[in-house]
C-alpha cells in the first residue's frame, strides 16, 4: 500500500486530501432523481455527486454494463431494455441493495432511474429501514413529453462513466469523444423515437405513481426540467441547500 501511494503524484494526493476534507463537513444525503427518459437526471447527477460527496447509482447504466458483459443479469435484462419496457423488480432491487454497500456511498447516494415502480419504492424503504436510514429528498424532473424526442435522439453517451452529451444542447469539446477520457462516445440502442414511445408509456403508467408515493411522505421537490442545464443546476442547488 505504502509503495503504491509513494508512486502517486503529489498534486493528485493533495487534491484527494482536499476533497476528503471538504467531504467530511458535508451533511449525509440520500436522494432520488425521478423523471422521464431524457429529462436530465444523468446530466445533473455528477454535479450533485461532486458537491455532496455521494455515490451515483444509475440502474440503467448498471444494467447496460451487465448486458455488454453478457452476465446472467444482463442476459435476463436485455430483451425488456431493447423494447423500452421495465425489467423485473427483483433484478433491480438486488443490484441496488448490493451497490449501496460501496464505500463511496458512505455519505449517501443519488438514485437515478430507481425506484421506477411502487413495489421498488416499498422494497427500498425496507432496505433503508434495515440500515436505520431514510430518503431525504426526491427531485422530480418535471417536463413535457414533447421536448424529449429531440433530447433522446441527439444524446451521445460515454458508456463506462454514463456521462451524457447532446449534439445540439451539450456537445463534447471534440466531436464524438468524451471530454474527460478522450474515449469514443456511443448512442444507446433504445434512444430512438420508436422505443422512446414505450419508455414514456412505462414512465406514465408505472413510475408516475412513485412520485405520488413520495409526495405523501412530504419529500418531493418539483424541478422545471425543461430549462437549460445550468438553470436546472441552480434550481437543484436551491432545493438541496434548503
Ligand atoms: P436522463 O438521464 O434523465 O435520461 P440525460 O441527462 O441523459 O437524461 O439528458 C438527455 C439528453 O438531453 C442528453 O443528451 C443531455 O445532454 C441533454 N440534456 C440534459 N439536460 C438538458 C437540458 N436542461 N436542456 C437541454 N438538453 C439537456
Ligand atoms: P435508463 O438508463 O434509466 O433510461 O434505463 C434504461 C432501461 O433499463 C429502462 O428502459 C429499463 O428497461 C431498464 N431499467 C433501468 N432502471 C430500471 C428500474 N429501476 N426498473 C426496471 N427497469 C429498469
TrEMBL record:
It is an enzyme of class 2 (transferase). Monomer. Belongs to the adenylate kinase family. It catalyses: AMP + ATP = 2 ADP. Gene3D superfamilies: P-loop containing nucleotide triphosphate hydrolases (3.40.50.300). Catalyzes the reversible transfer of the terminal phosphate group between ATP and AMP. Plays an important role in cellular energy homeostasis and in adenine nucleotide metabolism. This is adenylate kinase. GO terms for molecular function: AMP kinase activity; ATP binding. It holds the Pfam family ADK. Residues 155-190 form the Adenylate kinase active site lid domain. It comes from Daucus carota subsp. sativus. Its EC number is 2.7.4.3. Keywords: Kinase, Nucleotide-binding, Transferase.
